[in-house]
Each structure stands twice: as structure tokens, then as C-alpha cells.
Specification:
This protein is mainly alpha-helical and 86 residues long. It has one helix and no strands. The chain has one domain. The longest helix has 84 residues.
Length: 86
């Protein structure tokens, strides 16, 4: 009789340990996923900031190059056309 009680107690203890390990594993996995989501969100935010900065720089550079082209080519072209028409 005591043998079966001891076996039952060991089985229950083993079962409880397995349940606890499974619970801890699930919690660890949830923490890992939460951390991974946080990293992904940070990467997405930084990527968006970088792309916005690059777009702003490209737009500013485009405006500067357009302004320079207008200043240099604008007045020089008009007198040449007038001379050829006369």
C-alpha cells in the first residue's frame, strides 16, 4: 500500500514539475515574442524616419539644382534666340 502511495506522489510531483516547466516555457516564449515585436516596431520607425529624411534631402537638392539651372540657362538662351530671329 505505501508503495502505491509513494508512486502516486512521485507521479503527481513529476506532473506538477512538467506543468510548471510548460508554463515557464510559455511565459518565456511570450516575452521573446514581445521583445521581437518591439524591435520590429523600432526598426520600422527608424526606417520611416530615414526615408523621410532622404526624401526631404532629395527634394531640397532637386530645388537647388532647378534654381541653378534657371539662373544660368534662362538669360543666356533668350538673347541667342533673338539674334537668330533678326
Amino acid at each position: 500500500m505505501s508503495n502505491s502511495k509513494e508512486a502516486k506522489a512521485r507521479a503527481e510531483a513529476s506532473f506538477k514539475r512538467k506543468q510548471e516547466k510548460a508554463r515557464e516555457g510559455a511565459m518565456a516564449w511570450a516575452e521573446y515574442e514581445a521583445q521581437h515585436r518591439g524591435v520590429d516596431q523600432k526598426i520600422a520607425r527608424l526606417r520611416a524616419l530615414r526615408l523621410a529624411k532622404e526624401a526631404a534631402e532629395a527634394a531640397a537638392e532637386g530645388q537647388q539644382s532647378t534654381t541653378k539651372l534657371r539662373r544660368t540657362s534662362g538669360p543666356a538662351v533668350k538673347p541667342d534666340r533673338e539674334k537668330s530671329c533678326v
